[in-house]
Amino acid sequence: MYAVSEEFSSQIKSDNREFSVALTFNSSTELTGTTIQSISVDEVVNSTDALTLGCACSNKIIVNFINAPTDIDYGNSFFTATVGLKLGEMPTVYEDVELGKFYVADAETSNDFKTLTITAY
Hints:
Oligomer: single chain
Number of strands: 7
Distance between the termini: 20 Å
Low-confidence stretches: none
Largest sheet: 7 strands, antiparallel
């Protein structure tokens, strides 16, 4: 459960919402919606239907990029994913919620990083 403001709670229920997304690689390089094409998150609470002691569960995220920067070692990196909900117009204000910290397990690219798909846990 995330602690969010009353304004966030009200705006998330509205029909007209605007979101932003950001991935911060290795605590320094932030990539935003200009290069992120899509994000899919699979959240896991338990690995099976039964509760197993000592079992480790991990969320999975798949991110598709277009024209990804080539100066990041995607195969050996981690990133923090955040989603923001737009709350105000003047000035533009987003309230961010962190989805988690993910470690890249697989990075597939074609045509020199014009398209890139990473899978992380």
